[in-house]
Amino acid sequence: MENEEKTDFFKGGRPGDRRILRGDPDRTAVKLKKTPYYWWYKCLKQSESYKACCNSEGKGILSAVYEDFGDVFKWPWELWAEKYGRRIFVERKPLPKVELLTRQSMDSARPSKLNLILNVPLTVTKRKLLADFRNILNQHHDGRDLDVNRHSTSKRPLLKSRVQMGMVELLLAVYSERKYNKNLPLWKVGENAGVKIAFTHNSIPEGRPRILTIEEEKRRMAIVTSGYLKKARWLIENAEIGIFPLTREPTAIDYLKARLNPPK
Fold it and tell me: Residue 204 — pLDDT band, cuts 50, 70, 90?
């Protein structure tokens, strides 16, 4: 059943900004900016493989993603968000909600891993009912471990990930800095991209701290920047095939969550 509400719901939006009135493209672009949807769009704009796909009008191994995301190099975010983003990221079915079962609907209702059927006596206080309900939820609900994206009905679901969007922004900054300044040393790439490291001290055999030399600081910055570049490449490569956000090689489970077939 298609969502018949007047607003669209985006699970990856910020709290309070997940519902957006239909027919309001400006609001769509503003509310979804800096969310995972925005950074997925920005990752594709950094991808040379996806750029080649766009230049060939969607032909090639990334054609399935192109069919959904279109030419991100042609459309600025404010227009892309409404033209493409809304269509592929909106929840296509209404969110399930607590509802009163009628005698007729009760005959076909069945408990499962995704829903409970409760008997709520109305002869006790609300406080008692709420306490009982809370106890039952604690026993059966995953709480903070719940992967809400796994139950998404959007065409392109997000992955539940510990990767924060602030880190995604930094990874893309490092990737872009290296892309356009290939001759810079890695430590300078990290410095220009805004990588921050606590350069304080190092231990000496006696256990006393000492201040790092400038060369030691540069080496440490280079090591961290190299790690960020590796994560950035995985982030972009995964975005190209329809998995986001993921900064490592995808597993079969990642493909399953993204509703994709793993490569053979």
Answer: low
Joined tokens for residue 212: 């790092």
Q: Measured in whole angstroms, how far is the alpha carbon of residue 62 from the centre of its chain?
A: 20
Q: In terms of domains, do 118 and 55 share one?
A: no
Please name the helix (run of DSSP H) or strand (run of DSSP E) that holds residue 210, with its range, or none.
strand 209-211
Q: What does the pLDDT read at residue 2?
A: 45
Q: Is 94 a domain residue?
A: no
Residue 112: domain span: 103-151
Q: Are 262 and 255 in contact (CB under 8 A)?
A: yes
- What Å distances lie between residue 83 and 11, 12, 26, 74, CA to CA? 18, 18, 12, 12
Alpha helices (runs of H) in the chain, residue ranges in sequence order: 25-32, 36-46, 48-55, 63-69, 77-80, 86-89, 103-108, 126-140, 165-180, 186-193, 214-241, 252-257
88: exposed, middle or buried (Cβ count in 10 Å: 0-12, 13-18, 19+): middle
DSSP 241: H
Distance in angstroms (rounded) separating the CA atoms of residues 41 and 254: 19
Residue 97 inside a domain? The answer is: no
Is the pLDDT assigned to residue 1 strictly greater than 50?
Answer: no
CB 92 within 8 A of CB 53: no
Nearby residues of 133 by Cβ (< 8 Å), 6 or more positions away: 118
- Tell me the whole-structure pTM to 2 decimals: 0.84
Q: At what angle do helices 36-46 and 214-241 cross, to 10 degrees?
A: 100
Residues 124 and 192 both lie in one domain: no
